[in-house]
């Protein structure tokens, strides 16, 4: 972002060049679809406090590299100010632009993905099948994209609504086995509508690169502690699902239609109003649904020592609100969107 105007700047290539010159950052920062976006990846962690520290460090390093070329970074899932995205052209991105037209040009949105290790594809598919109804709750927690092209979208996570324009994005039906999962992805690629298996943009999927389940529903979070909480809850969901599978439990067979409604409700309401309870698919206050999520993963979090920190983080989140609430409160305090961005730059570094 321009530190004076708050406008997105297509300078990620210059920031990446700075990062690549730093040995410690060579495998951390990555190129993304647009010149206004910078991605970073943390290393595998088992200690959630250490993960939180690394998130903060990476954000500070990104800010340092950006500052050296006169710009700033903000952990925002959409730009509050109007923007015309600049596509970082390579063969893959050119294919996306040609194939999807305006949908590609309007995808300047920033999400957060969480990888959680699994022992096999069989366990991974069992996890993907079982965590489906809980993923909208993670979206509501992370929601950090209320503004779109200078206007209030009336959504807490408008990013997720833009992201769902991709034809392969969203919730999935039950797969039941690795064979069915891989056959479904192969059939999708064979249509020619998507380029390859990397474009199976499911809300949760088997990673094609790592022995992990990849959970892909969250907005990039304004506050680093919210990102740590999302990772903690994601790991709890995966472990809880794996335990249920090993014990012979069956996944809840909600339809994709209901799951889409739950995701829409989470994107619209965030934590301010009601969410759909993952078990019943009926409305309850958001706080009650968050407590239900904590209860659902409590045994898994207790085993890793994360239950108390997660409970405290949820309490703080309910007090402060998600990123969307923070952005709107800043605007209501008489600040303009430029000032909202400036404050988000500050909060990005904690």
TrEMBL record:
<dbReference type="Pfam" id="PF04107">
    <property type="entry name" value="GCS2"/>
</dbReference>
<keyword id="KW-0547">Nucleotide-binding</keyword>
<keyword id="KW-0436">Ligase</keyword>
<comment type="function">
    <text>ATP-dependent carboxylate-amine ligase which exhibits weak glutamate--cysteine ligase activity.</text>
</comment>
<dbReference type="InterPro" id="IPR014746">
    <property type="entry name" value="Gln_synth/guanido_kin_cat_dom"/>
</dbReference>
<dbReference type="GO" id="GO:0042398">
    <property type="term" value="P:modified amino acid biosynthetic process"/>
</dbReference>
<dbReference type="GO" id="GO:0004357">
    <property type="term" value="F:glutamate-cysteine ligase activity"/>
</dbReference>
<dbReference type="InterPro" id="IPR011793">
    <property type="entry name" value="YbdK"/>
</dbReference>
<dbReference type="InterPro" id="IPR006336">
    <property type="entry name" value="GCS2"/>
</dbReference>
<dbReference type="GO" id="GO:0005524">
    <property type="term" value="F:ATP binding"/>
</dbReference>
<comment type="similarity">
    <text>Belongs to the glutamate--cysteine ligase type 2 family. YbdK subfamily.</text>
</comment>
<dbReference type="InterPro" id="IPR050141">
    <property type="entry name" value="GCL_type2/YbdK_subfam"/>
</dbReference>
<protein>
    <recommendedName>
        <fullName>Putative glutamate--cysteine ligase 2</fullName>
        <ecNumber>6.3.2.2</ecNumber>
    </recommendedName>
</protein>
<keyword id="KW-0067">ATP-binding</keyword>
